[in-house]
Amino acid sequence: MTRPPITGAAKHSLSFPTPDARGRFGEFGGRYVPEALIPALDELEQAYYEARADEAFVSELEHYLRTYVGRPSLLSEAKELTRHAGGARIFLKREDLNHTGAHKINNTIGQVLLARRMGKRRVIAETGAGQHGVATATAAALFGMECTVYMGEEDVRRQELNVFRMELLGATVIPVTTGTRTLKDATNEAIRSWVTNVRDTFYVLGSVVGPHPYPMIVRDFQSVIGLETMEQLEAATGGRTPDALVACVGGGSNAIGLFAPYAYLPEAERPRMVGVEAAGEGLDSGRHAAPVNFGKKGVLHGSLMYLLSDDAGQISPAHSISAGLDYPGIGPEHSYFFAEGIAEYVLVNDEEALDAFALLARTEGIIPALESSHAVAHGVKLAGAMTPDQVVVINVSGRGDKDVAEAKRLFGLRNPAPEAQQ
Amino acid sequence: MNETGRSVISPEAALTQAFATAREQDRAAFIPYLTAGYPDEERFEEAALGILEVADILEVGLPYSDPLGDGPTIQRSGETVLRQGVTPARTLELVARLRKSSDKPIVIMTYYNPIYTFPGGEREFARAASRAGVNGLILPDLPPEEAGGLIAECRELGLATIFLVAPTSTDERIRTVTEACRGFVYAVSVLGVTGARGEVGSEVPELVARIKAHTELPVAVGFGVSSYATANGVAQVADGVVAGSALIRELGESVDEAQALAREIARGCVR
Asked: Do the strands A24-25 and A272-280 form a parallel or antiparallel pair, or are they unpaired?
């Protein structure tokens, strides 16, 4: 596909179609939160609309993205991976090269700048494996804010080094001991803490979930991924637009970041957009994180979306090899994209992700995060079924340094018998 | 009106009536909270029936895996009963059993997801609750703006819809919330989650006054009531006193201790 080049102005825009007045993307989204938070969400919404229309705010954000995060992140053509896949040309959007190693920082810099603009001196955040917690603690350190991060006790144990990282950055990490003691419960506790301290505290939410306006704010701050991709791909290919975009989805922030600038184009100009859900140990095992493919509509953490919920309306635990995808819901805008057929959502299991982790390391010399490995696995499959004149962009949302020890353990567990090898 | 034929007024009116009766006796209505089936179904029923004797209204918690508005005590009681298999349907059965022995109004406190995902959706949930003898619903994560469908179902059945007002609520919010309320208005005494506290927020008198400027409905105050003293402080300014976490904590020890605390808090409701 070809279309006119993106102008400089488009890159600087944070504006995409906003959800409706009630914070809905179609039927999804909304604000299912305790009353105490409604005034704070109103205040946040208004402050955000003012900020994103304010050139000074947007240029300050861009300044930090350029001089601190290291943006624009590269768009690398993956020639070896392309040869391996044997089909479409594969490009990798290199969010792994950002400061702190993942796309999460795009959002935390934006939200902490917004917090500062609103006169808040204290931020809180939830974290699963610790990537968003580290990115929030980093932004808080940069702007001299007090920072508290809620993290499930189980994740604190599994991700000891990230706890230390956050503490090194000056944050306080509070282990959460209720429920499944993972991201879902850390998010509950962060929301409870926000209710308690709502007058002086800014809640830095890490994904495109939560009550309105969070899914919109996080999308807008992450949309730099897709906006850069548009420009870089045109420059690298002499005016090409992608035929397919592939990104992993937990809550869905890196995928929304890549998709958003394309999703609201006229249908004829839209690439195929593919979100990759974690199939975990397989759907029959019940241990997965695939709310679009195997969940149903419901309400969690303040918004209506697809989620994993049992017959009695209780939220089911999610499972994935990658902690960042280990979340029982998918953001309301993704839920809307799915319901409207704007994007598609496919499955990659733990084993396929682990294979892709090794494949990208060997072919391109890039060790991706286990989250991003899900996107790589499907991207290769998809490219293989396409033609060499077509272009696929895979979002490498983070780097795999954090996963190397776990990957070593997992490869060690694999049956070395020849019949078990592919 | 209901199937037992004991009451001729609507479930919602029975709630308002309970406040009026308490007021005639120069006290605030006492509204204890118990998590359905906690610590087990037998002791729940025993405790509930005993506590109902000194209560004006009983609040029964329908357990949910992710209770955003609750502190650790009620969270853990919910986890306990979920492990024991207490579902939304089972909660309504437990209420129906209490109904055989008590005429006093019972309200369900829960979160929106169990209702949204109830077989047949919120319409069926409201009907099932009504059949079980429930008088009203309290949903801390469902602001009136999101409750249009459920409000319509409840109106049809005469079930009360009880929304929460918080210290951060603006006057405009208070108007929106109280307009959607039936039965009574639930005022949250502090910013935070449910939990026993040594004192109740200093903002309570002003908050109750702000609510009363917008509605004729009774105003009950919850979060933090744990003793005679905390109840008595609230009773001077509010129409109702809600106590939950402190009772749950005692109930974790024994039924007798929970009932003793309920009697103490009930005494504290006098003006």
From this structure: unpaired
Q: Which amino acid is at A51?
A: A
Contact B116 A178 (CB under 8 A): no
Gap from A29 CA to chain B (nearest CA, Å): 10
SS (H, E, C) B133-188: CCCEEECCCCCHHHCHHHHHHHHHHCCEEECEECCCCCHHHHHHHHHHCCCCEEEE
Closest chain A residue to B115 measured between Cα atoms? A313
Distance CA A51, CA A384 (A): 43
| CB of A269 closer than 8 Å to CB of A1 | yes
**B169 contacts chain A (CB < 8 A):** yes
Range B126-147 average pLDDT? 97
Q: What's the mean pLDDT when you consider all of chain B? A: 95
Distance from CA of B71 to the nearest CA of A (A): 8
Segments in A198-340 forming alpha helices (H) = 214-222, 224-237, 253-263, 291-294, 332-340
CB contact under 8 A, B143 and A33: yes
Residue from the list A198, A199, A299 with its beta carbon closest to the beta carbon of B113: A299
In sequence order, the β-bridge partners of residue A141 are none
Query: Do B188 and A196 make contact, defined as CB atoms within 8 angstroms?
Result: no
- In this complex, the residue of A35, A195, A304 whose CB is nearest that of residue B169 is A35
Q: Mind listing the pLDDT tens digit for each residue in A78-131? A: 999 999 999 999 999 999 999 999 999 999 999 999 999 999 999 999 999 899
Please report, in angstroms and rounded to a whole number, the separation of the first and last CA atoms in chain B.
33
**What's residue A80's pLDDT?**
98
Angstrom distance (rounded) from CA B75 to CA A388: 56
Looking at residue A13, its pLDDT comes to 60
Whether chain A has a CB inside 8 Å of the CB on B176: the answer is no
Under an 8 A CB cutoff, do A199 and B191 touch?
A: yes
Q: Is the pLDDT of residue A4 over 70?
A: no
- Catalytic residue annotation of B: 59, 70
Contact B172, B197 (CB under 8 A): no
Residue A420 confidence (pLDDT) above 50:
no
B93 near A CB under 8 A? no
Q: How far apart are CA A201 and CA A136, in angstroms?
A: 14
Closest in B88, B146, B168 to A312, CB measured: B88
Cβ distance A35 to B113 less than 8 Å, yes or no, reads: no
Of A327, A302, A332, A303, nearest to A317 by C-alpha is A327
**Cβ atoms < 10 Å from Cβ of B15:** 31
ipTM rounded to 2 decimals? 0.94
Query: Could you tell me the CA-to-CA distances from A278 to A85, A347, B170 in Å, in that order?
Result: 21, 6, 42
- Two tokens, residue A284: 């029959």
What sign does the CA torsion over B45, B47, B52, B56 have? negative
Q: Please, what is the end-to-end C-alpha distance for chain A in angstroms? A: 35
Beta carbons within 10 angstroms of residue B24's beta carbon? 8
Structural contact between residues B110 and B81, judged by C-beta atoms closer than 8 angstroms:
no
Query: Which residues of A are catalytic, by number?
Result: 104, 126, 397
C-alpha distance from A173 to closest chain B C-alpha (Å): 18
Q: Is the pTM of this model over 0.90?
A: yes
Interchain pair A38, B173: CB under 8 A: yes
CA–CA gap between residue A222 and residue A381 (Å, rounded): 26
Amino acid (1-letter code) at residue A372: S
**Which tens digit of pLDDT belongs to each residue from B19-60?**
999 999 999 999 999 999 999 999 999 999 999 999 999 999
Of the partner residues A36, A313, A314, the one whose CB lies closest to the CB of residue B191:
A36
Residue A280 bridge partners (DSSP): A349
Nearest 5°: phi and psi at A32? Answer: -100, 75
Cα dihedral: B220, B225, B226, B228 (round 10): -70
